[in-house]
Amino acid sequence: MNRRRAYEDDGDFYGERSRKRRRVSENQEMEERLEALILRVGENSTSSLESNLEGLVSVLESDLGNFRNKILRILSECPIKMPEKCTIYSTMVGLMNAKNYNFGGEFVDHMVKAFKENLKQCKWDAARYALRFLADLVNCHVISTNSLLQLLDNMVDAANEDSVPQVRRDWYVFAVLSTLPWVGRELYEKKESALENLLVRIEVFLNKRTKKHHNSLRVWSVDAPHPQEEYLDCLWAQIRKLRQDNWAEKHIPRPYLAFDSVLCEALQHNLPVIHPPPHQDSFEYPMPWVVYRMFDYTDCPAGPILPGAHSIERFLIEEHLHSIIEAHHWERKDCAAHLLNLSYKDKIPLEYCIVEVIFAELFHMPTPRYLEICYGSILIELCKLQPSKMPQVLAQATEILFMRIDSMNTSCFDRFANWFSYHLSNFQFRWSWDDWDSCLLLEMEHPRPKFIQEVLLKCLRFSFHDRFKEMMPETYTKLIPKPPIPTYKYTMEGAGE
């Protein structure tokens, strides 16, 4: 019986298989190259962003025939996973829509599908970033203003549903309000009356909602010197201030303005009617929070001015910093580097904003998002990367917290003591203790001496007792914990009995 395989006589078999393998590897290599180009657009480059966008759009347009689905997927994921580059990707989609109307329609459908899917899966941040991107596509003449306003109205309708948890209603209003800084100016110029009606409906909702949770989420029991505002109330005040300024903000980069002559001639698409999925008992919604404030412009030295508490720029800066921490909290060095490389760092006192946001995360009630040591390690890396500024700002923040500790929430008091002891252990336990001498005149159970006592007790776990006796001023002797000597009952007085 002839056991030779039939294809062995065909000398072309191996050549054909090799060509197929080569073709697959070439396609895979091309896909990876396209993905890298899209992901890195807008990052460090010798040429301008505008020329980079034009070149990338030309590349993508020529490859649409072979890699259409891949391009659609990447372009719809990037603004959700990298929300800080939202306007860059909306400009790219706008330019491609101007050249290829059918691709623009496919992309809008793809983005709408992603938005709906995120809502169904309770991926609230991803849904909010998808909504923001859809709104920004209005600025690029990809989506019509009427269809976006219809979507925003439907979301406010969801906020007015009965018999659903308040956290669900709050999130839908928050999603709409947090989207308006990107598209407010465009809606104001083209659909002012519809925008005003939307804001009136939101104001009615905010006036009716209960805020029983507010007191339990406060860091301090008093509102001096900074009011502790509930997050929706604060954002609403910032949106009203933006409306007074005719929806003109200064911190969102808008690269599509350079291509206005091209984009304004493009045909627009209408969003389909989108109804938010109904509430289910299994859905979990983001919990409310209190907006943390530590600094104002008087605390910062000469230089860029810290935006006011009710300016939309303060919201945009804080949201960006929070998203960086969320994306990079697993790697403290990367997180610190990204925080210090904020895109508009020259316009603001960046170090003060970073420290305020990190302490906002650490003191978040009822529990911080991540382990306490995560924030401590990021602050240490920040001090290493920027030794000329960050340690001074952190020392100023510590002084402010210590002076206000009398009214601090007990849980936050413990977190503050844990962080400070850990921080001191990484900087040879150096601190200007003489500046806090006034606390020695207070009773031992007063929060200030109690805080120092707690810090020294925790520091003892990182060092040894004699170190503190040498390090601390003599006036602090009564606050230094007792030496941790072993107790052996058989050598004590009366052991014979």
UniProtKB/TrEMBL annotation:
Subcellular location: Nucleus
Sorted UniProt keywords: mRNA capping, mRNA processing, mRNA splicing, Nucleus, RNA-mediated gene silencing
Major subcellular location class: nucleus
Domain annotation MIF4G: ranges: 31-243
One cellular-component annotation, GO: nucleus
GO biological process, one term: RNA splicing
Pfam families named among the record's database cross-references: MIF4G, MIF4G_like
InterPro entries: ARM-type_fold, CBP80, MIF4G-like_typ-1, MIF4G-like_typ-3
Record's function text: Component of the cap-binding complex (CBC), which binds cotranscriptionally to the 5'-cap of pre-mRNAs and is involved in various processes such as pre-mRNA splicing and RNA-mediated gene silencing (RNAi). The CBC complex is involved in miRNA-mediated RNA interference and is required for primary microRNAs (miRNAs) processing. Also involved in innate immunity via the short interfering RNAs (siRNAs) processing machinery by restricting the viral RNA production.
Family: Belongs to the NCBP1 family.
Subunit structure: Component of the nuclear cap-binding complex (CBC), a heterodimer composed of Cbp80 and Cbp20 that interacts with m7GpppG-capped RNA.
Protein name from the UniProt record: Nuclear cap-binding protein subunit 1
Source organism (scientific name): Culex pipiens pipiens (Northern house mosquito)
